[in-house]
Amino acid sequence: QGKSELAVIMGHEVAHAVAKHGNERMTQKMAVQAVGMILSLFMSEQPAFIENLLLQAYGMGSKMGILAYSRVHESEADKLGLILMAKAGYNPAEAVDFWQRMAQQSDKNVPVFFSTHPSDKQRVQDLKDFMPRAKQYKK
Fold this sequence. Notes:
The protein is mainly α. α1 packs across α3 and α3 runs parallel beside α5. The longest helix has about 40 residues. Helices cover about 75% and strands about 0% of the residues.
């Protein structure tokens, strides 16, 4: 596989940079922290156990929201990565094989809602669904 596997990985990672996913994640984390600080100020009049309980609930809720958003970023990077592969002269269909092999090696015990990535099955299906569009960019 060699070069085609490298093209899958590079396409995916470059796609994160092109889509500015790092910037979005940083902005999101800053917003979560700001809301947490404001919530903490409003809760300071409450008994400590209530304040802690509410802040922990907020923390868990915001973490779940960030994880879901992270899965969206991963899906976007997968699709844009296919286009970048095709534009670079690689067969984007190689990505499906690559991710299927990766799925065989992954920890399938992590529930999707606790994961930063889509499920292996969903990822492969999304790639297959997007493939006709990606192939339009093939040199």
